[in-house]
Hints:
By secondary structure, the protein is α/β, with parallel strands linked by helices. The chain is built from five helices and four strands, in the order βαβααβαβα.
Amino acid sequence: MKIYLDIDGVLLDTKEYKQMPYLKEFLTTVFDISKGEVYWLSTHTKHGESDVALYHLEEALDKDVFEMIKDIRNTKWNTLKTEGIDINSDFLWFDDVIFQAEYNFLESVGKEHCLIKVKDNLEELVNLLKED
Length: 132
Ligand SMILES: [Mg+2]
């Protein structure tokens, strides 16, 4: 299974841009269930490079968490994040805010259940992922 991760609102809270609570547990779990197939899906990395994102994240994240995210792979997309998703694969996409057009696309291919809304609830999501 492939895992796609947004940055703002998923790794960082959008108020103070600090590390989200339970981020380490969350990343450990997604790396585990994806067998390492974790991808960026953020406006900060849409050009297919994560260097700028990593530069900013290094300040915000705990050292051990920062080491983990270095293994996240890049995706390239232009208008909609869904362009960066391997849509025929088994995947989960974690995001806090998405465009209606992105949701419509997921729905058109019957993959809307692969989107998981993050709302300060990483602890809850870890428990959910461990159950499945
Ligand atoms: Mg976001």
